[in-house]
Amino acid sequence: MRILHLDGGREWRGGQIQTATLLRGLAKQAVEQRLLARADxxxxxxxxxxxxxxxLAASRRADLVxxxxxxxxxxxxxxxxxxxxxxxxxxxxxxRQGWLHRWKYRRPALYLAVSEYVAGELRRAGVAQERIRxxxxxxxxxxxxxxxPETPVVEVLAIQSSDPGKGASLAxxxxxxxxxxxxxxxxxxxxxxxxxxxxxxxQMEGLGSALILAGxxxxxxxxxxxxxxxxxxxxxxxxxxxxxxxxxxxAQLRRLADDPxxxxxxxxxxxxxxxxRFTDARMVEQTLAAYRQVLQGESTxx
Length: 302
Prior knowledge:
Helices cover about 40% and strands about 15% of the residues. By secondary structure, it is an alpha/beta fold. The strands form two sheets. A six-stranded parallel β-sheet has the order 2-1-3-4-5-6, sandwiched between helices. Strands 8-7-9-10-11 form a five-stranded parallel β-sheet, with helices on both faces. The protein is elongated and about 60 Å long. The two termini are about 20 Å apart.
């Protein structure tokens, strides 16, 4: 089995972390694979040049092409017509319409949707159910120290992002209303162990792999009730869901800050769920099963 992976993202974000996690897992299964990518974070995999010429040449030596983003989907559909194509679909918005896009979305043998929500968007765009499989994000469990400093004030941690959809201004206003300090992080693995509450706000989200990381770290979570997020956060069990309104977010933050028993219960349930449903081993196993079924030419994927 020779897999050609394509990742056209320039920045190191959740999708690229998932691609890297998959590459490491498949390597342990002795899968022959090659990566063409643009983000600097892929250096450990010695990626080839991400260009039309390189994709065309590399696809001739591949049994299957796995496109990990929309740009790669487009290029693979155009340049690799004789090779089975699998596309990871991570975004929450519906596929575009128009004859060119309809042609593009007919090309893949299978879509790996990151959530049931994303799978639903594909179905609404006309992709047949038998060409969609939900494979949730997976992460290796971080090996954090059990010694975590206690702070007298509950500090809220949110992701530092220039993306307006990630709700930085909303987070700041909600924490002001809740009377809780807020810190933005550009390195969750470093900062999550010291957080009191993890706040994840978004206008549109396919799933939200940072929530899985927070679950592994056993942190109470407040997150937007959008997209695939409710597939990770079950309200009042593995965290609290909220509308994207300052007063509503503030109320959920205060609820956790004022009820330590609820915060501990949600944090423990989030960790148990991460260890059961969102491991890297599970994600790799399901992806590898999809590869095998496509290569065996099965008409349906169950």
